[in-house]
Design brief:
- By secondary structure, the protein is an alpha+beta fold.
- Among the domains are: about 120 residues, no CATH class; about 50 residues, Uridine Diphospho-n-acetylenolpyruvylglucosamine Reductase, domain 2, CATH 3.30.43; about 120 residues, CO dehydrogenase flavoprotein, C-terminal domain (Enolase-like, domain 1, 2-Layer Sandwich).
- The protein contains 18 helices and 15 strands.
- The strands form four sheets. Strands 5-6-11-7-8 form a five-stranded antiparallel β-sheet. Strands 1-2-4-3 form a four-stranded mixed β-sheet. A four-stranded antiparallel β-sheet has the order 12-13-14-15, sandwiched between helices.
- The protein starts with a helix and ends with a helix.
- Bound molecules: flavin-adenine dinucleotide (FAD).
- Flavin-adenine dinucleotide (FAD) binds next to strand 3, helix 9, helix 13 and strand 11.
């Protein structure tokens, strides 16, 4: 049993082992006073003398056991027996741990001592600021490290929450190349408020990202709640949704309608891009090799802005959108002066409905204007027919969501939101 191994193992265990013993030792002092002195003096000494010399030579372990024994010497025989027992158990655990390491060392073809070192080094690196790194996996601790790692290995998969990547493995049975995990980078886990808006870092989970967005835009509460499920929202990230860039991803229509922008970084170089310019075509993004999304910035609410986002799916919870829509319209006087309308599920990418927007701008906020705009949707999109919906259904539904936006904003008496429907049927 190599002493070095033994002594390191004992440090924390010794601390935890000595505590309960000490507690037990101090309590029944009054009771022990009545016991014969001779009995209390003899036992521990003979017991400790019978231990192998190699064991007591291990420094921290020996210190710990000496301390416990010192306390035990002034207590009752029963308490001493308990203390002795816990020392024996503690030593047995050390032996077991060392045996396990020896076996591991044998399997790895190394000495138990060197495998112990490897194990402890790996475990310590989890706690320290140093990055966990071994062949095929790297978890950098800073954005700079991440940028350098991805630049050096642009074919690596960037892993955030893994809620999409997990499916590559479980559904598509894909082999993954090397992985760079961003969940250890404190600076990417931050949400901050800046003049440009709310800046949400790449490693911020959806739960927190949506939390910050909904605090500014309560109109998006239902969308946030219907995104995946709590486990998916706690693990997945908003930037992962953006970077994955699925045409039916739920965050993008709302973010595009709000005028969100992303920060992209490659090596030392950083650039900013409006989110609606990020998507170039199906599974094609304005993302260079070795580049990553560092954050997304969601602008603050604007005066006179009307906003809504709707997710249309067969089930309320845990379903994929057939259509996801977001509308942000600004009015001055009786005219619409700005309109940003974006859809998921109508094209190969999350996209703005530019003809529909143009049809609204300059018109009054009336049902007639909404009808003109709804008719323009066919200029913007020629949706696919697939298992979730037909082309005709998607176009019709998109127009109806625009109408719903208008009626809701006008305070329609008919409840259309799930929360309102639930309240109405209670
Ligand atoms: C059960 C379930 C339910 C779901 N429900 C919904 C839903 O309702 N709506 C919805 O839109 N999605 C849903 N998803 C999909 C998924 O949860 C989201 O797309 C999520 O936001 C992905 O984030 P992530 O951090 O898990 O990404 P990951 O799986 O870690 O990565 C996804 C992709 O983005 C890349 N990537 C991640 N972060 C970055 C970055 N910072 N820079 C560059 N590239 C990056 C990765 O390399 C990978 O290609 C669901 C998934 C599951 C499994």
């Amino acid at each position: 049993m190599p002493p070095a191994r033994r002594s390191s193992t004992t440090k924390s265990t010794a601390r935890s082992a000595s505590k309960p013993a000490a507690r037990k030792a101090s309590k029944p002092a009054a009771r022990s006073a009545s016991k014969p002195a001779a009995r209390s003096a003899s036992k521990p000494a003979s017991r400790s003398a019978s231990k192998p010399a190699a064991r007591s030579a291990t420094k921290p372990a020996a210190r710990a056991t000496r301390a416990v024994r010192a306390r035990a010497s002034s207590t009752s025989a029963a308490t001493r027996r308990e203390v002795e027992l816990s020392i024996t158990r503690f030593e047995k655990r050390l032996d077991d741990a060392n045996d396990a390491l020896a076996t591991l060392g044998k399997h790895l073809g190394r000495s138990a001592q060197s495998s112990y070192k490897e194990v402890t080094t790996a475990l310590r690196s989890l706690r320290r600021q140093r990055a966990l790194k071994f062949p095929g996996f790297h978890a950098p601790r800073t954005s700079d490290e991440l940028a350098a790692a991805l630049e050096a290995d642009p074919d690596a998969v960037l892993l955030a929450g893994g809620t999409d990547i997990g499916l590559w493995v479980t559904q598509q049975l894909r082999d993954l190349p090397s992985i760079i995990y961003i969940g250890e980078i404190a600076e990417l886990k931050r949400i901050r408020s800046e003049a440009a808006g709310i800046v949400i870092g790449a490693a911020v989970p959806l739960t927190e990202g949506w939390g910050a967005i909904v605090a500014a835009y309560p109109q998006l509460a239902e969308l946030a709640q219907r995104f995946g499920s709590p486990p998916v929202r706690n693990s997945g990230t908003l930037c992962g949704n953006i970077a994955n860039g699925s045409p039916i991803g739920d965050a993008m229509p709302a973010l595009i309608a709000l005028g969100a922008a992303i920060e992209l970084r490659r090596g030392e170089h950083t650039r900013h891009l409006p989110l609606d310019r990020f998507y170039l075509g199906y599974q094609r993004k304005d993302l260079a090799r070795g580049e990553f999304v560092a954050s997304v910035t969601v602008p603050a609410p604007r005066a006179g802005q009307r906003l809504a986002s709707y997710k249309l799916s067969k089930r309320i919870d845990q379903d994929i959108s057939a259509v996801c829509a977001a509308f942000a319209v600004e009015q001055q006087g009786d005219r619409i002066v700005a309109a940003r309308i974006a859809f998921g599920g109508l094209a190969a990418i999350p996209a703005r409905a530019r003809a529909t927007e143009a049809a609204l701008i300059g018109r009054p906020w009336t049902q007639e204007s909404i009808e003109v705009a709804a008719a323009a949707l066919a200029e913007d999109f020629q949706p696919l027919t697939d298992l979730r919906a037909s082309c005709a259904y998607r176009l019709q539904a998109a127009g109806n969501l625009l109408r719903r936006f208008y009626f809701e904003a006008e305070g329609s008496a008919v409840p259309v939101r799930t929360a309102a429907l639930a309240a109405a049927t209670r």
